[in-house]
Amino acid sequence: HPYSVIDRFFVGIEPQWGGIDAIEFTQDRPVSYVKRFGVAEGEVRVRHLQPTSRPNLVNLRETFIEDKTTFFVYEPWGISLREFRQLQPIFRLGEVEVATICGQVLKGLLYIHEELGIVHGKIQEGSIYIMENGDVKIANIGERMIQQAEGGAKGKDIEAVGDLVKTVLGLQSDDGTRGTTGLLARDFAGAACSATIEELLNVSVHLGGAPRFVLIRVTDHP
């Protein structure tokens, strides 16, 4: 149990706020968020559990397991893509910004698939976070580690990135007003069903994906 560790100071949050159950404020240690996750007996698979350190993940620092409850200690995360979209029309996301987000998500997935040897399974607006410095990170990696089913389909993660593009850019319906970049974005979303991560990363670069995400205020563009 993390709260019982000597010389560690945690502030509990009740009820849970933004997925956070507690925040660690221990001297000479980085601030961390604690997330409590309940699982049924026998469903915790510890084989894949490990700390992570990757620019495109909300990194898992520690894991504590007590009975049927798992406590994940994460680095702090920013604002979710779902929350960000709720800020419209103050902020807006165009094809280039979405390409940047998807490029970083794909890099995170490449690490999850190849280095961690698991699939994420829940790539969606609520599991993608935008940090203050512009980094884009995939969240909930600890939960995905302990709930990992053998032989999970990596293709589902890749397809989910395409669905993300369709949702954020509203590509489900074609109003016929999109330019060349918009058409490329539509092709990207469609290709996610059959392409590899490496192929999609190449497409995201052609769409104008920058190294980091930049917030764009509508008021800055009259």
From TrEMBL:
GO terms for molecular function: ATP binding; protein serine/threonine kinase activity. Residues 1-222 form the Protein kinase domain. GO terms for cellular component: cytoplasm. One of its GO terms (biological process) is regulation of MAPK cascade. It holds the Pfam family Pkinase. This is Protein kinase domain-containing protein. It comes from Petromyces alliaceus.
